[in-house]
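Researcher: Sequence of Xylose isomerase-like TIM barrel domain-containing protein follows. Predict its structure.
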Amino acid sequence: MRIPIFQICLALYPLQESKITSDPKTIAANMRKLGLLAQRYNLCVAYEAPSWGIHKNTWQHIQEVLDLVNLPNVGHCLDTFHIASKEAGDPFNVDSPVRPDGMKRLRHSLEELQQTVDPSRIVYLQLSDATVADPKQRAYPRRDLNQPAFMTQSQKLSHISLRGELRRNSAGFTGC
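Model: Prediction complete. C-alpha cells:
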C-alpha cells in the first residue's frame, strides 16, 4: 500500500449495541493489535469518534482508549462536524439548529481538547460542516427512522466547512 494513514471509527449504527463491547480496555487491546500490525507497514492509525457512535462517541472517549493503547502511530482522527454536532447541534431543529447552551459546550470541549490532546497524537484532522435537516422538505433524506439523527445529517447534508449552521464569524473565521 502507498498510504500513510489507516482511518478506523468506532462501532456504528446499525450494529446492535448489545453485541459490541463498551469496555475501553477491550477496545484498546484490539486497537493496540491494529497499531502494532500497522507499524510493520509504516502506517499511522487514525481513530475517529463519529457523533452517532454506539458506545464511545466523543473525542474524550477516544483519548481514553488512546491512553491505554500508548503507541506512537495510533492517534486521533478529529472531525469538526462530529465535535460540533455532539456539543452544540440539534440536527432536526430548523428554527434553532444550535442548542441554547451549544456554543458554551463547544468552547468548553475545544478548550479541554487543547489542554488534553498532545498535537503529535492527532493523525488526521477533517474539517466538515452540515446544514440542518428539515423533515418537512420534499426530498427529505431520512429513510431509516431508526438511524441516529447526526448520522443522517452527516451523510446527507454535509458539505464544505463553515457553510452550514456553524456560521463563519461565530467560528472565528476572519478570512485568508
